[in-house]
Amino acid sequence: MKYFSPKKWKDTEIKFKEKGNKYKKINRKNKKGLKKLISNLFLIFLLLFFVGGTVGAGYYTWLMKKLPTPDKIINRQIEQTTKIYDRTGEKLLYEFHGDQSRVILELDEMSPYVEYATLAAEDRGFYEHHGFDFKGFIRSILQNLLTGSKVGGSTITQQFVKNAVLTPEKTYTRKIKELIIAYQLENKFSKDEILKMYLNEIPYGSVVYGIESAANRYFGKTAKDLTVAEAAMLASIPKATTYYNPFGSHRDDLEARYKYVIDAMADEGYITDAEKEVAKKEDVFSKLQEKAAAILAPHFVFYVKEYLSEVLGEQVVEQGGLKVITSLDLDMQELAERAITDKKDLINSFNATNASLVALNPKTGEVLAMVGSLDYYDKDIDGNVNVALRSRQPGSSFKPIVYATAFSRGYTPNTILFDVETTHPTIIEEDGYTPKNYDLGEHGPVSVRKALAGSLNIPAVKMLYLAGVDSVLNLADLLGYTTLKDRSRFGLSLVLGGGEVKLLEHVGAYAAFANDGQRAEVVPVLKVLDSKGRTIYEEKIKIKKALDEEVARQINDILSDNAAREYVFGANNYLNVGFSAAAKTGTTNDYCDAWTIGYTPELAVGVWVGNNNNHEMKEGAAGGVVAAPIWNQFIKQAVKDKTAEFVKPKAVITGKPILDGEEIPGSIVKIDKYSGKLATDFTPESFVIEKTYKEVHNILYYVDKDNPRGPAPSDPTKDPYYNAWEDAVRVWAEKNNFVSELPPNGYDDIHIPANKPQISITSPENNNSVDRTFTVSVKTLAPRGVSRVLYYIDDSLLYTSNTYPFYGILSLPSGIGSGFHRLKAVSYDDIDNSNSHEININITSGAGSSNEFVWISPQNNFVISSFPINVTFNMPRSENVSLWYKKSDNADYYKIGEKQDPNGYTSIPWSGSGISSGTYTIKAVITDGSDVKEKEMTVVVQ
Asked: In 10 A of CB 434, how many CB atoms?
């Protein structure tokens, strides 16, 4: 309260004197005028009194009609704070409020120091006056008149009226209203009732209203637990909430005020002097909690608010003082947040900035954990956005929904599909749609179990066609997806993530698999109590059958089979957690989204990794690489020892080999590759190939896609996809030596005895003696012509002759000793029909003893039709060999060439330049030191 300073009183007195002096001057000039003036003023005063009384009475009547009654004031709707709790109802997650954060308490629910401090600070005569302090009121009016400033002199009752009912402007009309209502309240309610209303309504700064909200906001505790010093500080704030903000810049003034309040409490006898000294020494500022109202599980809390706003209305949620008991398991929530933050470096290493996790109870649908982003408060990644509720492409994690649809329509986990590159005809794409596997490879015929476990894309697309896009979307509706309603958008790419889904709904769908096909609607709230503690909303578990339990168990069996996915993911992958858990990963082609969704019978968990702005991650940022490690860590810690086994599905036998996983048996047949007919005993091994014959067809050859267990189609080509699928199978079969036809009926009629060559060795003769280097002459012919003759000593091939007359020039290796040996010549035609002749020969010289010159090519009397040619000979050891030629009718020799230190087979080129037709002598001059020898032969040049 402001008081007049001596200076102000002096200024007023001076002005009064000045006016008085002026009046005195007027009085000296005209005393009669003064009497007339007094008379007139008296008449005016009487007139004004009657008029003022009449107007005042009318004004009072009008004012009373405008004022609310005390009953309306007390029964008005008061905004109260809604509190969000975890599933225990004990751990506070956050408080929601509208413009005012408020919790209503009874006086006995507050610390007594709250009342003492408030009375000492604001209204020490509260229990004596009747709504207003008359002396204080007159004092404030005088000050207002004399200084022009509008100051207060309000009691607690008046302050309550001002804050609860009236507008905050400072006018005399509002002040009169305040006095009238305050007086009426005092006559209607007890002092304690008025004090309770005041303490529950008075502002304590910003949107904090009422002592309970203030205690929680500034000290993180309830009003019942406030100390003397804390109560004194809070009681100091309402005088000027902005100026005395505990987190503001006027802490010194606030400290002086709350210590003044502590002194006043002692003066009034509310506390002892000892208590006063302890309280004044207490460091209250160090106990302030600037983030006392920090939010736990922020994305979940705001999801709950949105959920309840739709059910109860936003105003009720924000202002109804509700106690909301949610489904959240705070311990599990902390595990989820830690799993994501622990893998932050891994995520960032793949150029990803964000991750989200949702955990549900499959049997109830209760949300046990929800992490909407890596950091709610990180603006750079739009951390406040709850990715769990945003639509993202799921990649291959949508495949189980497609396969479950197919199982519902009669297909089985053992169904055989061809994982071979296939171009599907489409209306939109002129060149068709050709999906690729993640590894860009093919695996041929695979079972559905293997295809789903290994996340093969090509069979998945075929399965979507077989199951039907509409049928898949029907199941998606039953599983709770809300983002796939516009069916015109979707085609075969749906199975690879072509339709966006929300993580929360995706996990909810997988939870139906865990619950044997029973889908529990997602439940974030268990119960809601009003401000009086009455239950106004209680969630009931809503379960609907989405698919047959055997179908769900088939999916569970595949997704929990680590051995089935080992061929792609390896044995030690992040989906293998050491207990029975089913899981599926997903990755978009552009690496914008990476997923892992998995579950046990009692917990379903989904993880997404990526960037909110859709920027691509690094290549290789697959679901099994960046999302699965988070899923692995969380589910291991969350499930612990409470694991249960999935119920095994029943064996399915349809009687159709293609649905029961029985590949059509084939037969391996030896074929003559020249004739294409069955090989015989006469077919040379070099012309024998083995072919596997079986009828290899795509699944549409065996089943009607809409009735797979019914009769096979009479004309499978009527299916628009048959030819494309069949062509792909045929190409794969040819590449892998599978023949989709019956084996030939006829036998090889080319390799027959009649076509065998004839051959006989003419030189040397049987049992002749030979040196270690010698020439073999043969006589051979064949119906198809002779292509070559091979020469063997004791089954060791020593020489091959490819030109007529097929002489064999043999130089025996050192391993063949002297004595009798077998000499064999084998004659072949162009398709390896063959025949042989062999004799015995006696090798007379020891191993390595021969050093004779032998002509190899051309042979004696050979006809040369063109040049150049190589003249080849065998000379084991010598210093030099030179070759010369002369025409038979000429005595002069001309040099062909020479070779220094020849060692074995040696060739010297003969260009034939200047050679004319005729008979020529070729001479070899062999020089070995002083020993010179000559060897000659004759050739004919045409």
From this structure: 14
Q: What are phi and psi of 399, to 5 degrees?
A: -60, -40
- Angstrom distance (rounded) from CA 536 to CA 543: 22
pLDDT given for residue 664 in this prediction: 66
Distance, in Å, from the CA atom of 124 to the CA atom of 426, rounded to the nearest integer, reads 87
DSSP code, position 542: -
Residue 82 · residue 530 · CB < 8 Å: no
- Please count the helices (runs of H) and the strands (runs of E) in the chain: 26, 35
pLDDT at 223: 93
Tell which residue, 746, 754, 757, 781, has the closest CA to residue 674: 746
Per-residue model confidence (pLDDT) at position 103: 78
Q: Please give the Cα distance from 483 to 497 (Å, whole number).
A: 12
Quick one: which of 513, 512, 480, 486 has its CA closest to 499? 486
Strands of 854-857's sheet, edge to edge? Answer: 854-857, 869-875, 904-910
- 444, 451, 467, 700 from 704: Cα distances, Å: 21, 21, 11, 6
CA distances from 781 to 693, 755, 759, 776, 833 (A): 38, 10, 7, 16, 12
Nearest CA among 497, 510, 509 for reference residue 392: 497
DSSP conformation letters of 298-326: HHHHHHHHHHHHHHH-HHHHHHB--EEEE
- Look at strands 688-693 and 738-739 and give their pairing: parallel
The pLDDT score that the predictor gives to residue 501 is 96
The pLDDT assigned to 179 comes to 75
Q: Apex CA 50: angle with CA 45 and CA 56, to 5°? A: 110
The DSSP symbol for 414 reads: T
Count of C-beta atoms within a 10 Å radius of residue 485: 10
- pLDDT of the residue at 713: 93
Strand pairing category for 688-693 and 854-857: unpaired
Amino acid in the structure at residue 383: G
Gyration radius of the chain's alpha carbons: 53
Tokens 């629910």 sit on residue: 109
Q: Please report the pLDDT score of residue 146 as a whole number.
A: 60
Model pLDDT, residue 810:
84
Q: Position of tokens 């789903």?
A: 452
Question: What residues form DSSP beta bridges with 839?
Answer: 823
Tokens, residue 66: 């405008």
Dist CA 615 CA 354 (whole Å): 11
Cβ burial, residue 456 (10 Å; 0-12/13-18/19+): buried
Confidence (pLDDT) at 357: 98
Q: Which residues contact 820 (CB under 8 A, 6 or more apart)?
A: 767, 840, 841, 842, 843
pTM over 0.90, yes/no: no
**What CA–CA distance (Å, rounded) separates 543 from 508?**
12
Domains of the chain: 6-66 (no CATH), 105-287 (1.10.3810.10), 664-668+682-738 (no CATH), 752-848 (2.60.40.10), 851-942 (2.60.40.10)
> How far is it, in rounded angstroms, from Cα 576 to Cα 918?
87
Tracing tokens 């997988």 back to the chain, one arrives at: 510
The list of the chain residues with pLDDT below 50 reads 1-33, 55-67, 149-151, 168, 292-293, 847-849
**Measured CA distances, 749 to 680, 745, 758, 759, 781 (Å):** 9, 12, 19, 22, 20
DSSP state string for 479-527: TT--S---GGG-SGGGGGTTS-EEHHHHHHHHHHHHTTTEEEPPB-EEE
Decide: helix, strand or coil at residue 359: strand
Angle, alpha carbons 325-328-334 (nearest 5°)? 135
Could you give the angle at which helices 6-29 and 134-147 cross, rounded to 10 degrees?
Answer: 60
Q: Which residue has the tokens 């990963």?
A: 585
Q: Could you tell me the two tokens for 293? A: 């109202």
Residue with tokens 């020439």: 775
Burial class (CB in 10 A: 0-12, 13-18, 19+), 917: exposed
